[in-house]
């Protein structure tokens, strides 16, 4: 996607649209951190992704740094320099559906507080979105074991607060050994999926582990 050429525009545009839906929140958080109001950040986010999905943009695509995360932030900074961006937002507002606009109202204000720079808030929100995407995939795989999935996701998201396997087993009518094996399988699947999600946003396989380590440090901070 990041190396899109004229013959690959359609496929790249589809991939970009999927990532836009998945990663609108870091863009919105960055804009709020820059002092934009909710309405301004919403309009800017919408207009920004419409710009990225335009044919002219893909024709002149020049990726920066090999990571979609970095590429988005650099592209956004370039766009914000454009004094005519607000007019473009109004004219093209309906072209891209970043469906959960109402979720923007619920974004934790501390995410873009004075305690973190807009860039730091962007990266942390990106890491959180990546985890959520991986969890959504796993939720589909574990759809026949919904209660177990609900218990096991915390072994990844909040390991310090995880209930004992014996407690989980008691609640779900399982053996402690069966819960332990399920937890092992779940963590393995999550690790594989999170790496796949990262692989979709970097240029080289060698970048995956480095990006993973960086994102883990953000989530633990």
Secondary structure elements and their pairing?
Layout lengths: L8 H14 L1 H10 L4 H15 L2 H5 L8 H14 L3 H8 L8 H5 L12 H24 L4 H12 L7 H8 L3 H24 L7 H14 L1
H and E order: HHHHHHHHHHHH
**Portion of residues within helices:** 55-70%
Q: Alpha-carbon distance between the termini?
A: 31 Å
Helix-strand category: mainly alpha
As a whole number of angstroms, the C-alpha radius of gyration is: 19 Å
Q: What fraction of the residues are assigned to beta strands by DSSP?
A: under 5%
pLDDT < 50 runs, ≥5 residues: 3-7
Helix segment count? Answer: 12
Q: What's the average pLDDT?
A: 80
Biggest beta-sheet profile: none
Label the overall shape: elongated
- Secondary structure: number of strands: 0
């Amino acid at each position: 996607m990041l190396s899109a050429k004229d013959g690959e525009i359609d496929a790249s545009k589809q991939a970009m649209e999927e990532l836009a839906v998945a990663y609108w929140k870091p863009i919105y958080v960055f804009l709020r951190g820059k002092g934009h109001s909710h309405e301004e950040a919403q309009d800017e986010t919408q207009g920004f992704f419409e710009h990225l999905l335009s044919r002219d943009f893909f024709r002149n695509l020049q990726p920066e740094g090999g990571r979609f995360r970095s590429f988005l932030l650099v592209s956004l900074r370039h766009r914000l320099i454009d004094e005519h961006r607000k007019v473009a937002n109004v004219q093209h507002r309906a072209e891209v559906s970043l469906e959960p606009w109402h979720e923007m109202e619920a974004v934790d204000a501390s995410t873009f507080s004075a305690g973190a720079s807009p860039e730091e808030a962007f990266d942390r929100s990106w890491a959180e979105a990546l985890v959520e995407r991986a969890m959504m995939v796993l939720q589909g795989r574990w759809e026949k074991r919904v209660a177990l999935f609900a218990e096991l996701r915390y072994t990844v998201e909040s390991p310090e607060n995880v209930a004992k396997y014996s407690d989980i087993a008691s609640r779900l009518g399982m053996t402690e050994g069966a819960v332990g094996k399920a937890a092992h399988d779940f963590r393995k699947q999550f690790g594989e999926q999170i790496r796949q999600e990262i692989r979709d946003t970097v240029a080289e396989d060698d970048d995956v582990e480095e990006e993973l380590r960086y994102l883990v440090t953000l989530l633990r901070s």
